[in-house]
Each structure stands twice: as structure tokens, then as C-alpha cells.
Amino acid sequence: MPEQVGSDPRTRTTPGRWRVLGVAPGMLLYQVRCVVEDPGWHGPARDLGHRVFLGRSGVSLRRLNGQLSVVDATSVLLTRPGDEMYAAHPLGDGDVYTCLELSPELLGERPDTDRWLGRRGWDGSVDERLDLEHRMLVARAAAGLDRFEFTERVHRFLGRLLAASPVGAGEPGAEIERAVRRRPATLAAHRRLADRAREVLAASDSRLGLTDVAAQVGCSPHHLSRVFQRVTGQSLTAYRNRLRVRSLLDVLADGDGPPLGEVAATYGFADQAHLTRVVREQVGHPPARLRRLFAAGEADLDAA
């Protein structure tokens, strides 16, 4: 087994509070809560190996092989040997992510091995169903799994993750890139505006209005809404709901969490019914059921 899989993750991650969640031959799962003394750029982190980084909360910046991106609770990154990464935390402490390290030998035994070992890194996002599966895996591993069940869950998650990865022209931003292909400065400016809006929303308390977001990024609400849709492939409202639901999943995973009516008010929903409707639309289950699923550590969400 390569040294990078199964050795101390503190030697290979951003300084922070870390917790190993599971270890099995060829795989290591751990969680990191970043502790930031200097919010500027740190790195480079080289020889990352085959890793999956999944955002949990907070917002930061990442430069992977020279490509800048915003990292938040919707983000996922797949790396492979030879990649080089820098990271910055402009808002300070609090960024949390899950990392899964995988050996080439383990990936080589999978039927989709060519897609893992022969691809470029994936820097994008995961949908809500897959994010829920990620968080369920973390919750169940933290509660305690034997090696057999841990290995099976990870392999199942990896298969679904790869199947959901973006494909070329279908990636977010493809529409705007085609529209302004001959105006690279415009494309860059629009991406910066969308990234800035993502930073503002990820750092807000979930009750910030569209006019407030537009004022903070320095443009009109109409222009921001139109550019954000073109760059990301989703509306500002949809993105805001994705962030709110992912924060809620952390609350629901805590068995001693507050009543749902209180949660709805905290996260800016009109009432508990509104909260329930949005969560069900996003992940397929109402919040009360999700709370029970997290407590039971359900293995198969599709069958739950």
C-alpha cells in the first residue's frame, strides 16, 4: 500500500483539527476542520495522489494546476498523482471538508479503473442526493463501522460519484463560454462575479437578500442573476437553497439538534412547511425522516 494511504493525514493536509473516520486496505477517510493563522495562499501541496475532497461547510479558495476556483459545501475535487494545489482561507477558520485517499492498487481492481486512473482531475460539485450519501457515510463511520461494511460503503459511493461526474460540454459555464468565446476578458469577469457571489452567500447567515448580495459584489440584482445563471448553470435561488440544505444536514445529523420550527427560522425559511418542502425537493426525504435515517445509519438511502 502506498505510504500516502493509511499514514498520518496531518502530514499531508491543511493545518487543522482532523479526525480519522475509517481505514481499510487501500483507503483512508478523514475529516478536517481548518485552523487558519494566515488567510493568504499556502502551498503548493504536491503529489496529492488519488484523493476525493468533499466540501462540508465554509468557503475558501483553491488553485489546482493553475486553475482558480471557489470551494464551498457544494464542492468536490478529484486529484491524481502529479497535481499541484494551493489553498487560501480569506474568511478565516471554520472550513470543513472530508477527504478520501485511495491507492492505485485499489482503483486498479475496480471495473471503472480506466476512468479513475486515466482521467484529469475533476473540480466541480455534487448533487444533493450524492452529498447526502457522503454525509451519511461520514456519520455512520464516525459512529463506528467494521472494516467490511466501511469498504463496501466506500466502493458504492465511489461508483456513484464517478457516474455523476461532469462531461465536457455539459459542465457548468459551458453556455457562457460558448457565448463569449471571442471575449475572454468578459468570460473572466463574469466568472469572477459569480465566484464573488458564491463567497458572499456561503459566508452569510442564509437570510441575506438578493439586493444585499448584489450590493456586496457591486452590480445590479438583474445583472448578477443573469450572469450567475450562465456561469454556473443554476439560479442564485437554487444555489442558495443548496447551501442551506447542506448546512441543515449537519444539524439533522446531530441527534440532539433543535426543533424543526427553530431550524426553519434560523435558516431563513418562511416556516417549517417551507423548510420541509425545500429539503424534500433537494434530497428526496423530509427533514424529520432524515433525522431518523442519520440516527439509524441507513446503508441504502434509495431503499430507505
Key structural traits:
single chain, 304 residues, alpha+beta, Jelly Rolls, Arc Repressor Mutant, subunit A, 3 domains, six-stranded antiparallel β-sheet, four-stranded antiparallel β-sheet, 12 helices, 45% helix, 20% strand, globular, Homeodomain-like_sf, AraC_XylS_family_regulators, Transcriptional regulator, AraC family
What features would you describe in this structure?
This protein is α+β, with helices and mostly antiparallel strands. It is 45% helix and 20% strand. The protein folds into 3 domains: 9-170, Jelly Rolls, CATH 2.60.120.280; 174-233; 238-303, Homeodomain-like (Arc Repressor Mutant, subunit A, Orthogonal Bundle), CATH 1.10.10.60. The protein has helices spanning 104-108, 113-117, 128-143, 147-163, 174-179, 184-203, 210-217, 221-232, 236-253, 260-266, 272-283, 287-296; strands at 16-24, 27-34, 42-46, 50-57, 60-64, 67-71, 75-79, 84-88, 96-102, 122-125. The strands form 2 sheets. Strands 1-2-9-4-7-10 form a 6-stranded antiparallel sheet. A 4-stranded antiparallel sheet has the order 3-8-5-6. A hairpin with a 2-residue loop joins β1 (16-24) and β2. α3 runs antiparallel to α4 and α6 (184-203) packs across α8. Keywords: DNA-binding, Transcription, Transcription regulation. It comes from Micromonospora sediminicola. InterPro entries: AraC_XylS_family_regulators, Homeodomain-like_sf, HTH_AraC, HTH_AraC-typ_CS. This is Transcriptional regulator, AraC family.
